[in-house]
Amino acid sequence: MRTFAYDPFISKEAIEAAGATPVASIPELFTHQYVSLHVPLTPETSESINKSLLLKMPRGGTLISTARHEVVHEGEILEVFKERPDFCYLSDVCPKNADAIKNVLGDSYMKRAIFTKKKMGAQTLEANNNAGVAAADQIIGFFENGVTKFQLNPFPAEEPAASFVVPSKRILLATEKAFAVEAVGKIEQTCKAAGYGLHKIENYKSKGDLLEAVADADAMTIRSDVVDKAVLDKAAKLKIVVRAGAGFDNIDLTACTEKRIVAVNTPGQNANAVAELVFGMMLRSARSNYDGTSG
C-alpha cells in the first residue's frame, strides 16, 4: 500500500521521512481511493470537503474523517451518495444529517456510511496518558520557563513577554468526558512532582460547575470542554488553558487573547489511536461491516 500526504505546515522532506509521498494540493489527494481527514475546524476548513473534491475519487472512493463534522459539507456529501453508489464515508463523529443519509442508503447504511456512537479518535489508554501528561508538562513548562510552544493565539510581537507570580500553583483538570483513571493518576504525579496542586472536576453535569471551579485556577486542562467568554470572565487568575488533544474549536481564542490567556494544544499525542481507528474503519467498510456478504 502506498501512502500520500498533504500538509502545508510540514516540509516535503519530513513527509517523506515519515514514509509517505507528498502531494502538492488537496485536490491531488482526492485522486486516491482512501482519503483520511485530520484537520482542525477553522473558518478556512469549515465545509471545505465538498462535492467537487469527492467526485474526483476513483471507484470505491472512501472518505475517512476524524475531524469535526462541520469540516465536511454535509449537504453536498448527501448528493455524492445519491450520484455515486460506490462512495463510502466513515467518521467517528456522527453528522447532523445522518438520518437523511440513512434514508438514501437504505440497507447499505452502516456499510457505505459508518459512524461511531461517540468521538473515538483519542479513546485509548495510550492516547489518554500521552495527552494528559503532555498538557501537565506544558503548564509546568509555561510557568517555570516561559515555554509557549504550540500556542494557538500568539500575542503581538511588540508585546513584552509576560512574567507571572503563581503563589497557589493551582491547576484545574476540567473534563466533562473524563480521562482514563490511569491517565488521571499520571497527571497527578506530574503535577505533584513539580509542586503544583491539581483540582479535578470530572464528568460534571452543568456549565455552572465549570464556572465555579475555574474561579481560582491558575491553569486549566480540558478535553472537548467549551471554554468561551463566560468561562474566561469567571477565571480571574487563569494564565493558560491547554486542550489535551489537537482540535481547538472549543476554545474562544479571541477572548483568550483579549485577556492575555495563553491557549495551547497537544498535537501528535493521539496519533497512534487515530491511526488505529482509521485502519479499523477501513477494514470494517471493506468487509461490509462483517455482515457475511462478499466485500
Give a written overview of the molecule.
The protein is α/β, with parallel strands linked by helices. The protein has helices at 12-17, 26-29, 51-54, 74-83, 98-105, 125-145, 181-193, 207-213, 229-234, 253-258, 271-286; strands at 4-5, 21-22, 34-37, 62-65, 88-91, 113-115, 170-175, 197-202, 219-222, 240-243, 262-265. A five-stranded parallel β-sheet has the order 8-7-9-10-11, with helices on both faces. It has a four-stranded parallel β-sheet with strand order 3-4-5-6, sandwiched between helices. Strands 1-2 form a two-stranded parallel ribbon. Helix 6 (125-145) packs parallel to helix 7 (181-193).
What is this structure, in a nutshell?
The protein has 295 residues and is of the alpha/beta class. It has eleven helices and eleven strands.
The amount of beta strand, in percent, is 5-15%
Give the N-terminus to C-terminus distance in angstroms: 18 Å
Q: What's the tally of helices? A: 11
Tell me the strand order in the biggest sheet.
8-7-9-10-11
DSSP E strands, number: 11
What class, by secondary structure content? alpha/beta
> What spatial form do the alpha-carbon principal axes imply?
elongated
As residue ranges, the low-confidence spans are none
Reported for the largest beta sheet, the result is: 5 strands, parallel
Topology as H/E string?
EHEHEHEHEHEHEHEHEHEHEH
**Residue share in helices?**
25-40%
Radius of gyration computed on alpha carbons? 21 Å
Average pLDDT reading: 93
